[in-house]
Automatic annotation (TrEMBL):
Coiled-coil annotated spans: none
Name this protein carries in UniProt: Asparaginase
PANTHER family: 60 KDA LYSOPHOSPHOLIPASE, L-ASPARAGINASE
Domain Asparaginase/glutaminase C-terminal: residue ranges: 217-318
Length: 341
């Protein structure tokens, strides 16, 4: 039985070609991708291509586009066995994280991929990324999807989407999942680490929740920074602070006063680490105690991209019971390792 895969092309380098007059990259008509890559016809699945009307650079992808993708997957969920989203690399981790929260109780693969070089380049990474992603998107065993979550496939590695970050603008191996193991690797065989795959609860049905609030601010703390600037920013609902190491910040009376002021104004404060690997652990050092005092929320080992999209999804979302802090402290779809902290 041939599996059906819906391929959503949003834009990005993977669908570009070189304009030989100007030397710049331009988007080609992605509906003709089978002409560019006849190998796609050899894969044992039926592929339907749905390109965005206007292909977008990934720096133009945001909440509006995330909702559009989630809604489109929701509408077509019953008609396809898997979903593949082609996306520019710069913000792919944000989109993957946002989709992981919006597509609830997913039982089918949603895979994002892209490339560092255009599909027409001689040395392109686009073909391998696209072909292997199609394999993963159509991979079923005993009539059940092997992958039932939002993932990123890039340069021989399948990663949990909401655990990823782009760490290289230059190498083909552009993504890391520093706090969660690789879900699969493609070599001579397609390997899947089944123990690390997410499984939705059996009694919950798939549904799409596109709630996203943009009243979220992200700030990286640096030595000598004047926190007084925060007091001048008009009221924000969530402030995500990216702080040092395992959750430390300069230990001054001023720090506590400013953070307390924000909390009194009703701002939720979420704390994530500037370190790529590991996470926040309040109380480990004295200089993290201020966060406990003011009632800040630990982001544990979440990536910045994930913490931002999770906050956007949870903030004032009527479909969640309990407070923002209670929900943020839960692992909703494998985005955080709570047991290690």
């Amino acid at each position: 039985m041939k599996r059906k895969v819906l391929l959503i092309y949003t834009g990005g380098t993977i669908g570009m070609e070189k304009d030989y007059e100007t030397g710049s990259l331009r988007a080609f008509n992605f509906s003709h991708v089978f002409d560019r890559m006849p190998e796609m016809n050899l894969i044992e699945c039926e592929i339907t291509v749905h390109p965005f009307r206007k292909p977008l650079d990934s720096s133009d992808m945001g909440p509006k586009e995330w909702k559009k993708i989630a809604t489109y997957i929701g509408k077509n969920y019953e008609n396809f066995d898997g979903f593949l989203i082609l996306h520019g690399t710069d913000t792919m981790s944000y989109t993957a994280s946002a989709l992981s929260f919006m597509l609830k109780n997913l039982r089918k693969p949603v895979i994002l991929t892209g490339s560092q070089l255009p599909i027409g380049d001689l040395r392109t990474d686009a073909k391998e990324n696209l072909l292997t992603s199609l394999y993963y998107a159509s991979l079923y065993e005993n009539d059940e999807a092997v992958i039932q979550e939002v993932t990123i496939y890039f340069e021989y590695k399948l990663l949990r989407g909401n655990r990823t970050l782009k760490y290289s603008a230059e190498y083909f191996d552009a993504y890391q999942s520093p706090n969660y193991p690789i879900l699969g690797q493609s070599g001579v065989h397609l390997n899947i680490e089944k123990d690390f795959l997410l499984r939705p609860s059996r009694d919950a049905d798939f549904n799409v929740d596109t709630h996203l609030s943009q009243d979220v601010l992200f700030w990286r703390i640096f030595p000598g920074m004047h926190l007084e600037h925060f007091a001048e920013i008009p009221s924000m609902k969530v402030l995500i602070l990216q702080v040092f190491g395992s959750g430390t910040i300069f230990n001054t009376t001023k720090t506590e006063q400013i953070l307390q002021l924000l909390r009194e104004r009703g701002t939720e404060i979420v704390v994530v680490s500037q370190c790529v690997s590991g996470g926040v652990s309040f109380g480990k050092y004295t200089n993290s105690n201020v966060f406990t005092k003011v009632g800040a929320i630990s982001g544990h080992d979440m990536t910045a991209e994930c913490a931002i999209t999770k906050a956007m999804h949870l903030l004032e979302n009527p479909s969640y019971e309990g407070s923002f802090a209670e929900n943020f402290n839960k692992s909703l779809c494998g985005e955080v390792s709570l047991e290690h902290h």
